[in-house]
Every structure is written in C-alpha cells, then in structure tokens.
Q: What sequence folds into this?
C-alpha cells in the first residue's frame, strides 16, 4: 500500500495562483503516472492533469494553458501549478497515482480544498 499526501490547497481570488504538491509515503513503488483529479460539490470527480514516468503530460480541457503539472525532484512526488484561477476551479483536489498505467492498481490522496472566490 501507498499513502498519498497533498499540500498547498487554500483560498485565492479569481486570477490568482496556487501550487499543489503530492508525495507518496513509500519509495518501494515506482508509479507509471501521477496526477490530479477534482470534485466540486454535487458533481462527479473530473480529471485535471497527469504526468508519466517519462514526463508525458496530459491535461483536462478546462485547465489547458492555465495549469502545469510536473514530477517533483523526489521520487513519487508531483506538483500542480495553477494560474489564472477561476471560481469554477473551486473543488476538492485529489492526488492520484497509477502503478502500472492500466488502472488496475491505483492510489488516492485524501483531498485538499481549493476555493476561488472574491
């Protein structure tokens, strides 16, 4: 098992920036990919962004050009730089790790709240 811990959530005004970080409690695994999902109240959990071991990045349509995902300098860590935040970005953000890239072995963080409001 692996535990994912998220850091960096909070409140910001529209147009502001936040940086989220996530790290795994173990270095036994070498994840195929890590990324972020988000869930707003009353809505399903949506894909935000992911990055593979080979640094291939993928973004959800609504965050392209505003969010940047990158692997951290420490093994099994990932960061999400969010710029030009909008009220509709308000959600709980969940860190996600896929061990083999096939969705069969996945891990989730507990979530961190991001609120964008004036």
A:
């Amino acid at each position: 098992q692996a535990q994912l811990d998220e850091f960096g959530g909070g409140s910001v005004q529209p147009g502001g920036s936040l940086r989220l970080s996530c790290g795994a409690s173990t270095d036994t695994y070498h994840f195929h990919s890590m990324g972020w999902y988000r869930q707003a109240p009353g809505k399903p959990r949506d894909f935000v962004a992911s990055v593979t071991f080979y640094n291939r990045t993928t973004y959800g349509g609504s965050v392209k050009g505003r969010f940047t995902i990158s692997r951290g300098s420490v093994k099994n860590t990932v960061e999400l730089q969010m710029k030009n935040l909008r009220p509709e970005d308000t959600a709980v953000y969940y860190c996600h790790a896929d061990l083999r890239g096939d969705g069969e072995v996945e891990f989730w963080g507990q979530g961190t709240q991001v609120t964008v409001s004036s």
Notes: The radius of gyration is 13 Å. The mean pLDDT is 94.
